[in-house]
Amino acid sequence: MRSDLLTQITTNIAGSNISVSSELPFTSGGETLYLKNMKNFYLDEEQDDREQVLKTLDGYELEQNTITLNGYFACDAKNQPGDTSSVVANIMNANSVITGTVNNSTQVTTEIVEDVITYTFEFNFITI
User: What does the DSSP 8-state code read for residue 7?
Assistant: First the structure.
């Protein structure tokens, strides 16, 4: 899922002021990569959560599987790129590339620390 989503995000924001990195958003030299390399979008690894939804008398178990991926990019809060709002919308719309799910959702939150604004995206994909 991560590679499909990353490919779609790359396509959706091509030509914008934000680049897409294939690296994971790890810490390098004591600083998180998306803060160190601002205006670069990073997508984290998949987090898989399985939950039993139903167990029948004959022993059949129905599970709900929620896969969550978090994505990040940061930029100067005072001088954001002019296309930031369309980049955010296009990143959020990339979840439509994942099929075979009963629910796809994306949430975005922002955090401003000093003069840096960080956009955090949470992609959730639910299958049964």
Answer: H
